[in-house]
Amino acid sequence: MTDPRLTRLAASLPATVPFVGPETMEREAGEAFRARLGANESVFGPSPKAVAAMEKAAAESWKYGDSLSHDLRHAIAAYHDVDPAHVLVGEGIDGILGNLVRLTVAEGGAVVTSAGAYPTFNYHVTGFGGTLHKVPFRGDHEDPDALVDKAVETGAKLVYISNPDNPMGSWHDGATVAAMLDRLPDTCLLVLDEAYADFAPEEAIPDIAPTDTRVIRTRTFSKAYGLAGARVGYAIGPVDLIAAFDRVRNHFGMTRVSQDGAVAALADRDWLEKVCRDVERSKARMSEIAAGNGLRALPSATNFVAIDCGRDGGFAREVMLALIARGVFVRMPGVSPLDRCIRITCGTDGDMDVLAETLPLALEDAARNVR
Amino acid sequence: MTDPRLTRLAASLPATVPFVGPETMEREAGEAFRARLGANESVFGPSPKAVAAMEKAAAESWKYGDSLSHDLRHAIAAYHDVDPAHVLVGEGIDGILGNLVRLTVAEGGAVVTSAGAYPTFNYHVTGFGGTLHKVPFRGDHEDPDALVDKAVETGAKLVYISNPDNPMGSWHDGATVAAMLDRLPDTCLLVLDEAYADFAPEEAIPDIAPTDTRVIRTRTFSKAYGLAGARVGYAIGPVDLIAAFDRVRNHFGMTRVSQDGAVAALADRDWLEKVCRDVERSKARMSEIAAGNGLRALPSATNFVAIDCGRDGGFAREVMLALIARGVFVRMPGVSPLDRCIRITCGTDGDMDVLAETLPLALEDAARNVR
């Protein structure tokens, strides 16, 4: 039953959640996964220096975190060579996207994204009563021209693109993304989600001034920095928009441990480079494993690989479920034709051994279940 | 300048923030506080067992936290002897209050609280476009009858009370709070903020069934458990209302370190008892210090003490500023006549020595500045 005190909007919201977590699946299965390769976490872990900083901060957790995340914000600003007034720190990109939607999308307001793109963004748009308009991927890439066209057509407040993208791992060069801005109406903001930028080739990163009022870019410590469980994301955008978050954000919402961990993680460039090498090795191994099973691994500029299972979404789903049943946590895209793929996060050599062992068996299971 | 893409509501919001953090003040002053007694943190720290759990979890921070906070939620449910379906875990009471307001208050919706009560609750109400109706304290207590009267009069969706209360430290017996429910309209929810309940006498805690649909109670790990910087709060309420949070909350918003720290903190009852003894010793010492300076410490069922400075708000404000200038972080109530007091958090013996040293000097400063 719905609580009678909910607002009309709240009462209308679906009870579905963007993602079921692996712990939930493990509790249901009654056993732990052998390989945790479904949420694009970094199995290579955070920098040992970040871990040390977090261990040290634990005993200081009686103090609220710094409401301005001053040290972290300034470190991020220095790293990107922008003024700190352009930088917002938040509780992961998820938290930042929620507040961004809250700030810009009134009930009924139009928002544009790609069909099959980040579900949590859609969750926030729906949650604040916005209307989603979805554009198909084209050739396993998000389609910049179609996104802008749809934004113009619908009078959207926000248009979302991830580059490199999730769930396919593809990317556009930076110039293509930057060119979107020139066709964007003044009343529309580009949300450029660069969660996977740390893994991407340099040419994938657009050269956009932080003062550019047409775009907000999001980054995270959840992927390459290996701190998904610490909930630290940030945005770079125009000063007025960044300042507006102060009107709605949870000012003391960052944990002290996470603030200190992120500062240390950002400073350890060697670790980031090592992680990127580990990711490349895992991607190469995944391509081999896929090929050895007659499947194709799509090119990826991220820490995961979409593996084309060669048939339709029903078959790929059976492959995914069979891998999960055999203790390998993976996920898959939600819409056709992307859903001919399963999405596997890069892992350790041991994780890849488990994948090499289980994938042929999962393919057999799937072939049996889908005639 | 306001970003032109903000919603009408967002553009109308004030740029003020509920609290300026002590780190911000330290950066402005160019030096660290000698005593940090302004935010009702627990200077006695978290349980060493909680610290150990957090240290252990740090290296596991590459994994997202459990989106259901299963272990923590079940531990809280067991502690309160309620079904876990009645328990919501969130990013501090602040985060929970924000989502509660979002779920229940549409633009223009009436909300009732006490003048001078928790500013962050008011911040959320304003932030979602609600209209605040404030009832005065009576005799340094929140006024249950007047709160309910105002809720009836305004058709409020929410009525907020803290028990024990912040900022005065006073409390009502549980029966008085429970009696509010009998006069509450069906369309109104009582928000019973029990952030300080762990310090309160047993008779201050109302006997209310978790199934009671008229009330949601909030608790926190930020006060007695000494984990303000870990951002863990929880609510106990009717199942339908608790479930509704799943429609809007940031599902992976809890950090893994905080989840594990809170589970360990909750289990260490000895530490909680020790902290409560430390708090009592500090309160006794603060009463002595106040009396030695011709001031009166109000009775407190919390981990802070409101000290009546014996004159008006302007004078108390000068005392507060003089303490801050002398390196003692304290705060004060925001409205008359509560603002004749300054509010000082319980501290270590060393903190109390600093207070004993600086308070007479601050009173001299204030007397000089206010003629």
Automatic annotation (TrEMBL), chains A, B:
PROSITE patterns: AA_TRANSFER_CLASS_2 (PS00599). GO terms for molecular function: pyridoxal phosphate binding; transaminase activity. Residues 37-359 form the Aminotransferase class I/classII large domain. CDD domains: AAT_like. Keywords: Aminotransferase, Pyridoxal phosphate, Transferase. Pathway: Amino-acid biosynthesis. SUPFAM superfamilies: PLP-dependent transferases. Transmembrane segments: none annotated. This is Histidinol-phosphate aminotransferase.
